[in-house]
Write a structure and sequence with these properties.
Elements (H helix, E strand, L loop, with lengths): L1 H16 L6 E7 L3 E2 L3 E10 L14 E7 L4 E8 L3 E7 L4 E11 L9 E10 L4 E7 L5 E2 L4 E4 L4 E7 L10 E7 L5 E4 L3 E4 L5 E12 L5 E13 L4 E6 L8 E9 L4 E8 L11 E5 L4 E7 L6 E8 L4 E8 L9 H37 L5 H5 L16 H14 L38
Length: 446
């Protein structure tokens, strides 16, 4: 045993000194970490070095594999697969970080230096071993070193994947306690849970796993993941930056309806491009959703602005038609005279209509309110012959009304002024005649 330890020390020194010139390499791998009580496997493989081929390897019976395992890690079984591979099955009931060494040497030379030598470690823990996996239906999930990038308002499946290569927990009972990071908690017997995050932000999802091996023996483990919830890109708004069309340069303001960080790729072409390629202009937005695009216009032909926006959970592309102003007279100088002429024509039509309606209204008013006596209109008197009019009817009408009042027995009208005189009896009246007094015009009652 002491000789073996001395050989290991010599091998380490020789390996450090001649690592660059060794004709063989020995690679050791394990399936750790493992849980206490579970079985783990360790495998060593001998490969030729640089510039050598497998045909130059020694025969199978010419090589021997040697192992050194740190206690209390114990070897359950050992076997050799082929000429160049050796495997171990190990187990430990005490948690810790164990060192395993392996070397290969010639069978016929016990004092010779090993052909290859290496070492590895195996982690044995007392808790359950596993990891969290997050997926969203119909969406890709981006995984980074610090967590996951997911979309808001989308069902998220959080799954616990148990690592048990030896099927040590195949007949055990599991219980899961979920903490989604937004205040909601849940307990299930299944190794997965669905949850929807309504708002963007960074969340810490966590699950506590309990494995019951028997009524008195159980193991547990806590696993977590950092979730970066982002709003998916729903729209890309393109508008003029200053509300005007410059003569030779077009300024555009792009607003992306989605959570940053954003990658915007834009290009200008004659027609809409289905997929923006590598020839586009790339803009990185770490915290903002807006960017400014400036493009020179060489011709007065229609253009197409192709914009593609991406974040960790979605991508969207849109096309925006651009019609630049042609050089020469500005179109506004044709629009203003046309609007002015149309306004003048409308005003003339409106004025004519109002005058026509007003004249018709005046004619109707004169016809309805003309109370002049018919005798005055038909007489041939001059301008100087003006006679006082009574509010009552004319003399002919007074006669008819007098005969009518005679039959009725009473008067219907009193007049304080003189009744109008008939021009046929005016010349025969004498001033001394009592009946010619214009101040006493009345109708006697019977």
């Amino acid at each position: 045993m002491a000789t073996e330890r001395l050989l290991l020390l010599l091998m380490n020194t020789a390996a450090i000194a001649a690592v660059g010139s060794s004709p063989y390499y020995l690679f050791v791998s394990s399936n750790g970490p493992i849980t206490t009580g579970a079985r783990g496997s360790v495998e060593a493989s001998l490969v030729p070095g640089a510039g050598m081929e497998a045909a130059f390897l020694p025969p199978t019976d010419y090589l021997s594999f040697h192992w050194e395992v740190q206690r209390p890690l114990s070897v359950v079984s050992r076997w050799r697969r082929g000429a160049l591979i050796s495997s171990l099955i190990v187990r430990s009931h005490v948690p810790g970080l164990y060192i395993l060494r392996a070397w290969v040497r010639r069978v016929d030379c016990l004092r010779c230096l090993p052909l290859a030598h290496t070492a590895t470690t195996l982690h044995v823990t007392d808790s359950v071993i596993g990891t969290l996996s997050l997926t969203q239906l119909n969406r890709s999930v981006t995984s980074t070193n610090i967590g996951y990038e997911l979309a808001t308002n989308t069902p998220t499946k959080i799954s616990f994947i148990l690592y048990d290569p030896s099927r040590y927990f195949s007949s055990s009972f599991f219980r899961f306690r979920w903490h989604f990071g937004d205040g909601e908690r849940r307990i299930t017997n299944d190794s997965y849970a669905f949850h929807i995050y309504p708002r963007a932000g960074i969340y810490q999802a966590q699950v506590e796993v309990y494995v019951y091996l028997s009524h008195s023996q159980w193991k547990s483990g806590t696993f977590g993941a950092t979730l970066n919830l982002l709003d998916p890109i729903n729209a890309i708004e393109v508008r003029n930056a200053d509300g005007e069309h410059p003569k030779d340069i077009m300024d555009f303001h792009l607003h992306v309806n989605g959570s940053p960080p954003l990658t915007i790729c834009w290009s200008v072409s004659a027609n809409c491009i289905r997929a923006v390629g590598h020839a586009c202009h790339t803009v990185l937005l770490e915290r903002s959703r807006d960017c400014h695009v400036r493009y020179p216009m060489s011709e007065a032909e229609p253009y197409t602005l192709n914009v593609r926006a991406e974040n960790g959970v979605s991508s969207l592309q849109t096309c925006y038609k651009i019609t630049p102003w042609r050089k020469g007279i500005h179109p506004v100088w044709f629009i203003i005279p046309g609007v002015t002429l149309l306004t003048i024509v409308l005003l003339i039509i409106l004025s004519t209509t109002m005058r026509s309606s007003r004249s018709q209204k005046d004619l109707v008013e004169v016809a309805d309110f003309d109370f002049s006596p018919s005798g005055v209109k038909s007489s041939g008197w001059g301008r100087g012959e003006i006679f006082p009019l009574c509010c009552g009817p004319s003399q002919s009408q007074a006669r008819q009304s007098h005969s009518r009042t005679t039959r009725e027995g009473r008067s219907l009208l009193h007049c304080s002024g003189p009744p109008p005189l008939d021009y046929r009896t005016w010349k025969h009246l004498h001033p001394a005649d009592p009946g010619s007094n214009p101040a006493t015009c009345s109708v006697a009652q019977r």
